[in-house]
Amino acid sequence: MKIILTQEVSGLGAAGDVVEVKDGYARNYLVPRGFAIRWTKGGEKDVAQIRRARKIHEIATIEQANEVKAKLEGTKVRLAVRSGDAGRLFGSVTPADVATAIKSAGGPEVDKRRVELGSPIKTLGSHQVLVRLHPEVAAKLGIEVVAA
């Protein structure tokens, strides 16, 4: 099935790309979650609009990505969350929480879709988070999850 991606999907493409995927993957996963829309002749207009929006939010060059990476890796991020007695969190830390914490710590503004958590963060302590700034540049960021 031919689809138009509305958001970046790891291993598949970026927003505005027209890709061919298995019918079930598109019908059961990508379209219901809003990651893609079905390709139509009229959808080509949507592709142009999605690409314009992507250009505005995208880091254009590798040099810019490396500058943002240096700022990110130099930022100390502390995230205060509610937790129980044994250090387990009520819920988990989401990519949106990490993006907000980076901005409040004085770091550059990062899109929550670019933050990749290796596994769900459900405990207090230090954790590593990957931020994909550019297809060729990723920043490893250490965050400290503390009790609120």
TrEMBL record:
Superkingdom of origin: Bacteria
Pfam families associated with the record: Ribosomal_L9_C (PF03948), Ribosomal_L9_N (PF01281)
rRNA-binding as UniProt keyword: yes
Boundaries of every Ribosomal protein L9 domain copy: 13-40
GO cellular component, one term: ribosome
Keywords: Ribonucleoprotein, Ribosomal protein, RNA-binding, rRNA-binding
Function: Binds to the 23S rRNA.
Family membership noted in the UniProt record: Belongs to the bacterial ribosomal protein bL9 family.
The protein, known as: Large ribosomal subunit protein bL9
Organism: Streptomyces hydrogenans
